[in-house]
Amino acid sequence: MAAAPREVPTPLASAILLLPAKRVKQDPSCPEPSSAVPAMEAAGWSTLSGDLIRRIADSFLANNDLDYYMSVRGVCPTWRAATDDPTSHTGDSRFHSRGWIVLDEDFQGDGRRVLLNTLTGRFFRKKLPLLLDYYIIGTSQGFFVLADRSPPHAPRVFNPLTSCMVRFAAPVPCEVGLSEVDSSLALALFCDSSRTIYKAARDSEHFVAVKTRSKKPAVYDCFRKAAVGGVYAEISGLKSTVLAETITILPMAMRACFSADSEFYSDLHRDVKDLQSSLVVLSGQMLLVVGAPIPFVCQVDIDAARLHPLRSIDRFAIFLSNRRCLAVDTDMFPSINANCIYFIHLLGTSAYICKSNIEDRKVERISENPDFVKQGKQFVLVACRPVTVIQLLSSYTINIPDSQLALQQMP
User: Fold this and answer.
1) Tens digits of per-residue pLDDT, 97-116?
2) Can you give the pTM of this predicted structure?
3) Which residues form the KIB1-4 beta-propeller domain (predicted)?
4) How far apart are CA 19 and CA 40, in angstroms?
5) Is residue 53 part of a domain?
6) Alpha-carbon dihedral of residues 98, 103, 106, 111, nearest 10 degrees?
C-alpha cells in the first residue's frame, strides 16, 4: 500500500519572538537588539536571573536545537552573558550538531540548505553563503567538512547551526571520497581509490593512515559503511580497536547466524559480501542491518563475536540503502511506521522504496511505480513535490555527493 503523500513541514518559527536586531562588533555571532532593549526592560525579561536563563537555554540543548539556543543568546546582552558561547567551547559536545542531517546537498543553487533534526523531526532551512568560499568534502552528523580552495587545502569543520568553524593544520589527502567527524572533532577521511582511511586531530601536522587487521576490500567497505551509519562518531569515545574488532567478526558472525536459525534466515543470500548491509547505533547499542532480499536486524556482541537477531527495535525505524543507513524515532515522524526497515530495491536504473516489518518480515513496496531514476551517479526522485518524509530520508540514504575537492583534482 502506497504511503499517503505528506508535505514536508516548513521550518518552525523560533520559540522566542525576537524584535528587530542589529549586530555588535564584539560578538558577530549573536545579534543584539536595538529598539528591543527598552521593550525587554519594560517587560522585565532582561532582568531574569541567570539561572532561569540557563534553564531556558538548556531546554533547547537537550534536543540539540542549537539554532534556538543561538536565538536565546541573541535576545539581549543579559541573556548572552548568562549562556556559554559555542565559539569558545568548540570541544563541548553540547554544541555539536548531533542528530542533525543535511538533506539537500544541492539546493537550487541559492546557497540555502535544508537540515533535519532527527531527534525532534524538525526541519530547518538556512542560507549558508560561506560554503561558496570552500570546497565541500562532505557532511557528517550535521557538520560540513570543508577544504580551503587554495593548496594545501587544509580542512575545516563547520557547524551551520552555531556558525562555528574548526580549522585543521594537516592538508587533505588526494581523492578523499568520504569524511566523518567524531565526538572530539577529529576527522576521518576515506579514500576509495586506494581503500585507505586517514585520521587527524585539529593540531595534527599530517593525516595518518589507519591500520586495520585485514587488507581485504570488504573490511574497508565495512569501515566506510560504519562511518556513514554514524557508528564512527558514536563510539569514538571508546578505543579505536572496538570498531576494528567489530568489523573483523562480522563475516564469521553472519555465517554463524545463517546456520544457527535456518527458519529465520532461509531466504537470505549466503554470500556476505553481496548483502546490502550497514552498521548503525541505536539507543547506545551497535546494530547490523541487512537489506534485500529479506531485511533483518542483529545486535552486535563484540565480546562474544556473535550477532543476536532482533524481532523488535521498539518505536524506531531504519532507512537503509547500499550507501548509507539512518535510524529515526517514529514518535517524531507520524507517517513512518515503527519497527520497520525502509530499504532501496534497485532494478537497473530504477529504484523502489520498500518497507519490511522486522517482526513478521513482510515486504511491500511504498509505491507501484519507481521512486527514483538514476541520472549520472545520483538517484533522482520521480515523484512530484511536495515529497514525503519517507522519500526524503530514502533519498538521503541512497545519494552521497562526491567531494568537490576530489572532483577538482580529477584529470
Assistant:
1) 888 999 865 544 566 888 99
2) 0.80
3) 122-345
4) 9
5) no
6) -60
